[in-house]
Amino acid sequence: MIKSATIEFLKDLAANNNREWFADNKPAFEAAKENVIEFTGAILAELKAINPLLAKDTDPKKCVMRIYRDIRFRLDKTPYKNNFGISKLLGDTNNDSIEFYVQIQPGRCLAGGGYWMPEAAHLKAIRQEIDYNADELKAIIDKPEFKKLFGEFRDQEQLKSLPRDYAADNENISLLKLKSFAALHQFTDAEILQKDSPKKVAEVLANIYPLTVFLNNAIV
């Protein structure tokens, strides 16, 4: 589980996002980071129990993203992220952009996955796969449990015009117009602090896994 001290560290960091404060509080950062690594390891163990092909031999340390921001080309020069990001939890995807993502951030803890804003070639391939095998995708995203966790998949940002080569009367046009193919579920801070939170996060990710398989198959 995530410790309350980790959440408190992130709150303090958001209020004091500068190098001097961070240097003075480096021990608190290291303790929070170690907690997130342990949390990641617990999620990986749960994922392996759900599906042995997932997260095979994955090092939890390599899944925890750097807290340092790349500010070289940004107007916002604050040096640190105000969250811990966890990614690379999938062990069998052929594309790094199709993956799981977990975020630990006060007031915005979440777990998700899929493909956010695919590059042009991948977007074309995914649309083609939807056109050919829409029933397979709809069987995933229209399940009651999927909708309960993630809401209506079709409500993500869509093109305002029709995608090239597809007509307005296509029965799957609401899926073909999507710009992203992702699912996100938000947790309260209280939920993420509970002892069984790694299991709950893994259960959410397990419901996204079939979507990642569909997307990965589309672009290979």
What characteristics describe this protein?
9 helices, four-stranded antiparallel β-sheet, 4 strands, 220 residues, globular, alpha+beta
Main-sheet strand order equals: 1-2-3-4
Counting helices, strands and paired strands, the structural category is alpha+beta
Q: What is the mean predicted local confidence, pLDDT?
A: 94
State the order of secondary-structure elements, H for helix, E for strand: HHHHEEEHHHEHH
Report the count of strand segments: 4
Helix content: 40-55%
Weakly predicted, low-confidence segments: none
Shape: globular
Provide the domain count.
1
Total count of helical runs of at least 4 residues: 9
Task: Give me the Rg, rounded.
Answer: 19 Å
The largest pleated sheet is described as: 4 strands, antiparallel
Strand coverage percent: 5-15%
Distance between the termini: 36 Å
Give the oligomeric state: single chain
